[in-house]
Amino acid sequence: MNVLLDNWRPLVDGLLTTLWITLVGGVGAIVVGVLVTAARVSPVKVLSGLAFCYVQFFMNVPLLALLVLFVFALPEVGLIMPLLTTAIVVIILYEAAYVAEAVRSGINTVSLGQAEAARAIGLTFLQSLRLVVLPQALRSVVQPVGNVMIALAMNTSLAAAVGVVELTAAAQKVNLVSAQPIQVFVGAGIGYMALALAIGLSTGVVERKVAIVR
Amino acid sequence: MSAGVRTASTDMTPTSSKRSVPGASVLFDAPGPRARRRIRIASGISIAAIVVIIALGVHQFADHGQLDAAKWEPFTQWPIWRFLLTGLLGTLEAAALTAVLGSALGMVMALGRLSKVRVIHYAAATYIEIMRTLPVLLMIYVTLFALPAYGINLPLVWKLVAPLTVANSAAFAEIFRAGILGLPRGQEEAALSIGMTRGQAIRLVVLPQAVRIVTPSVVSQLVSLLKDTSLGFVVSFSELLFKGQVLSTFNHLLIQTFLVVTLIYLVVNGSLSTVAHRLQRWTARRTSRGGKPGVAAPPGMALTPMIGEGHHE
């Protein structure tokens, strides 16, 4: 345990960076994902086609390839952002596709009568989506979206491969100095497991809180 | 047969007959004249927005000289493609190894977690839960930097495949377990009641059906696994992304190279995803259609005659 205590500074900094990416990335991915789903189910063919392509693209291209593309290649055409920002943007775009798929499956579980009733009282498409369908759909997909969030937390480690010093990179740096790989990597692993556990537990709490009692 | 035709046609149009109006869906009716105009306006605005974004992108590319023919011309030549396609071969090799080993290990862990022996159950459950919540990159760093310190230096390909196998085995285990648990209890009980041992029941009755149920999820997992092999970039294993990196340091065509690499991933994974999607629809249709000779019949139907025969003996 000594190595971890002696090098707590870089490790805690790394952990905080991981938490930051997870938090901002998670919130961003949920917002973008819901917007993409709204476009996907809209009556406007152009938008739903665009949303379909978006989801297909990001589900079929590796995150690491996107990170490399955005971090190393796109600055060549003048798209330059700070490294951490770039990583967060890529993670948001990537995970939003998974959130969108999860939310869409939730929309499919909302019973037909709900949408019909919403239309019957004269709500427009956007109103019925925002006020009737989405609130119910989102409640039913807390668990799947939570799983996406856990995957997102795991995927933040890929940012290490393009130079972001988060927990994985910090662990590797400490290991280079201290040459105590087992302790360092087990420590980092416990960090990730705690993060996943925290997301899993809060998912459970949120799910119970928002569950519809029928 | 007629049932099959009916299912196929209801697949295409929304469920009840009154909403078989073209353009209608669960969320909106067939648009009237006003709604049609609104949809046209929205389409117009979104097309305009897309065009503007594409134009801005093209302008940005052209501004930095990235659209020059000279910068794209190398990618019309076979040697470049051969170089990248060898990378794709490496990707497929790593993915195939991971798929075979990962699913085998996953199956063992799934059965372990369902075992009635407590020690095995807890060991498998612990393994699955830990491996599911560790980033793959961390495991790769362990094989890259930690294991060599203890004299374990894996060959290059295994530095990628071993961590991927461990990580994916946990995912496969959960998929298989879901399939086994998703099967009606009666299947195993019936097998036991005709005198099979539990091993036989699982091997001959439960697994063949469970594996068939989860085939679409397994194929989706293959897509995710194929994406994971891009981590070969970190271990310098010659797969597609790493080859792209090597190529770009030679030709200095970063954007072009990585865009082409992205495109190759998109094509390969896109076809795999399509297969998964087809399988899913096919499975759904087959199970809703009712038993067909030679394939897994729905539990209720298969069970009845079997019990009947038992009574006669």
Kindly report how far apart the N and C termini of chain A lie: 50 Å
Q: Which band does the percent of strand residues of chain B land in?
A: under 5%
CATH architecture of chain A: Orthogonal Bundle
**Structural class by SSE content of chain A:** mainly alpha
CATH superfamily of the domain at 75-289 in chain B: MetI-like
Over the alpha carbons, how many angstroms does the gyration radius of chain A reach? 20 Å
Number of strands of chain B: 0
CATH level-two architecture of the domain at 75-289 in chain B = Orthogonal Bundle
Q: Main β-sheet of chain B: number of strands, strand sense, barrel status?
A: none
* Low-pLDDT stretches of chain A: none
Name the chain pair with the biggest interface and residue counts per chain: A-B, 59 and 58 residues
Q: What is the CA-CA span between the terminal residues of chain B?
A: 34 Å
Q: What's the total number of strands of chain A?
A: 0
Element string of chain A (H = helix, E = strand): HHHHHHHHHH
Radius of gyration of chain B: 26 Å
From the spread of the alpha carbons, the general shape of chain A counts as flat
What percentage of the residues of chain A does DSSP assign to strands (E)?
under 5%
> Per CATH, what is the topology of the domain at 75-289 in chain B?
MetI-like fold
Descriptive account of the structure:
- The complex is a heterodimer of chains A (214) and B (313).
- Helices cover 81% and strands 0% of the residues of chain A.
- Chain A is built from ten helices and no strands.
- The radius of gyration of chain A is 20 Å and the shape is flat.
- Chain B has 313 residues and is mostly helical.
- Chain B has a domain at 75-289: MetI-like (MetI-like fold, Orthogonal Bundle), CATH 1.10.3720.
- In chain B, helix 8 packs antiparallel against helix 9 (198-228).
- Chain B is flat.
